[in-house]
Amino acid sequence: MTPPELAEIYRGYIDCLNRQDWGGLGRFVGESAHHNGRLLGLSGYRDMLVNDFEQIPDLRFNIDRLVCEPPHVASRLAFDCSPKGRFLGLDVNGRRIRFAENVFYRFENGLIVDVRSVLDKVAIEAQLG
Predict the structure, then answer these.
(1) Backbone angles phi, psi at 96, to 5 degrees
(2) What is the C-alpha to C-alpha distance for residues 112 and 127, in angstroms, rounded to an integer?
(3) Which of 39, 75, 90, 120 is deepest in the core (most CB within 10 A)?
């Protein structure tokens, strides 16, 4: 798989998330998917995302930076949203916040099998301060 091909798959994955196309998630995420070292599988990964959208109704994934070096993708995702209640242990309670997520993916056979993610909690704390 070439870097442009992997980038196209990744952009399709982000589009799938933003459309909340949970039935189509299996086109991008493997049955043995891990997130930050925990085995979630496809169904657990889907549950995690559904919960994210329930807690953050205006959630939208925006690619700020994208680097593809097969089988890996590194992405900086930008968020501008309003979580309903507590988020990352912080009382956001519907306030609009902006933050980034730095995330690394490993693909096998065109599917995400491992995700390592770090959210910029400090940026959120500064906005709530």
Answers:
(1) -75, 130
(2) 32
(3) 75
